[in-house]
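Lecture notes, continued. The same structure-token format from the folding unit now serves as the input rather than the output. Read the line below as a description of shape only.
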């Protein structure tokens, strides 16, 4: 076995997380985004509640972003609605997701709704959200089915 000698390389930081350079106005932008997402929260929860059937009961969770991430700097929050169905030998998860996208002035611009397909709403109004949700509902939720693993049935 041979080892290749390499010269000393300066560490460039972690590849696990890349953050934008900190700017004083960034903290204010994050707070504006949080306030906008919290103001829209009841509307989005109400719209998501109509998508999944009443049984099995679905959870609706809001995730507020604590930073502006370089991979998607315009996304500021998202809601996830998921329902779990348990069977004797398998389980299934069905979910919808709504991402709140902001413009360059940190105002809500539109929603990105995802299920079995993704649709962007025309703006951040309730009517536009409901229209996008109906278009995604036609394709159904994002669904995952998996069998249960029984590694030691007889023991």
């Amino acid at each position: 076995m041979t080892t290749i000698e390499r010269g000393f390389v300066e560490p460039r930081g972690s590849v696990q997380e890349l953050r934008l350079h900190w700017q004083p106005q960034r903290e204010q932008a994050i707070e504006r985004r949080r306030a906008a997402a919290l103001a829209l929260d009841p509307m989005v929860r109400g719209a998501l509640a109509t998508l999944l059937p009443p049984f099995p009961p679905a959870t609706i969770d809001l995730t507020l972003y604590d930073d502006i991430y370089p991979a998607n700097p315009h996304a500021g929050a998202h809601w996830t609605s998921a329902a779990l169905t348990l069977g004797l030998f398998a389980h299934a998860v069905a979910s919808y997701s709504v991402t709140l996208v902001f413009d360059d002035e940190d105002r809500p611009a539109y929603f990105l709704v995802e299920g079995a397909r993704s649709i962007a709403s025309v703006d951040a109004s309730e009517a536009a959200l409901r229209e996008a949700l109906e278009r995604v509902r036609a394709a159904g939720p994002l669904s995952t089915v998996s069998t249960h693993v029984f590694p030691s049935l007889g023991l």
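Point for the exam: Residues 24-147 form one domain.
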